[in-house]
Amino acid sequence: MKSNTAARMKPSWETPTDLSGDAVVEISGSLRKLLADVFTLYVKTKNFHWHMSGKHFRDYHLLLDEQSDQIFAMTDEIAERARKIGGTTIHSIRDIAEHQRLKDNNAEFVPPQDMLAELRADSLQLTRELRVTHKLCEKYDDVATASLIENWIDETERRTWFLSEIVADR
């Protein structure tokens, strides 16, 4: 009886897809890393939003609030795409920490221009990581994931552009 209950409680992770098993493993693994990076960038952006100071406080505070909303919106799309193709995604804060490539910033104080420059650099790195995953999707002919990634690249490049214009204005 115990094994029968366990069998009923065990979730089925298999999702019908025409992608190969290798494609599912590699693409969902890459999406897991992207998701960890996006959560890292989200938390860092909110951190800097909460700790903004200086003469451009209002403008920067609002910019980072807007950007953090855009970044957070990516998280559900990334995770759901991994699940749609039959993969799994992150489960916890520890899982994020194990997969993230972007670095945290735990400094007590960061000058506003340094905050923006760091977010700009992180956004550039995220764009590079998105392109790597896009190439992986092309390798396996995963057009749907590649299409989503193209939109995320465009959105990330726009955020990078805004940050670049401010940082260049030093």
Question: Topology of this protein?
Answer:
Elements: H1 2-9, H2 21-50, H3 57-84, H4 93-99, H5 112-139, H6 143-168
Distance between the termini: 69 Å
Total individual domains: 1
CATH secondary-structure class? Mainly Alpha
Order of helices and strands: HHHHHH
Rg from Cα: 19 Å
Number of strands: 0
Return the CATH topology: Ferritin
Strand content: under 5%
Describe the structure.
With about 170 residues, the chain is mainly α. It has a single domain, classed as Ferritin, core subunit, four-helix bundle (Ferritin, Up-down Bundle), CATH 1.20.1260.10. Helices cover about 75% and strands about 0% of the residues. It has helices at about 1-10, 20-50, 55-85, 95-100, 110-140, 145-170. α2 crosses α4, α2 (about 20-50) runs antiparallel to α5 (about 110-140) and α3 runs antiparallel to α6 (about 145-170). The longest helix has 30 residues, at about 20-50. The radius of gyration is 19 Å and the shape is elongated. Residues about 1-10 have low confidence and may be disordered.
Summarize the structure.
This protein has 170 residues and is mainly alpha-helical. It contains six helices and no strands. The longest helix has 30 residues, at 21-50.
Observed structural traits:
elongated, 75% helix, disordered N terminus, 6 helices, single chain, Ferritin, 170 residues, mainly alpha
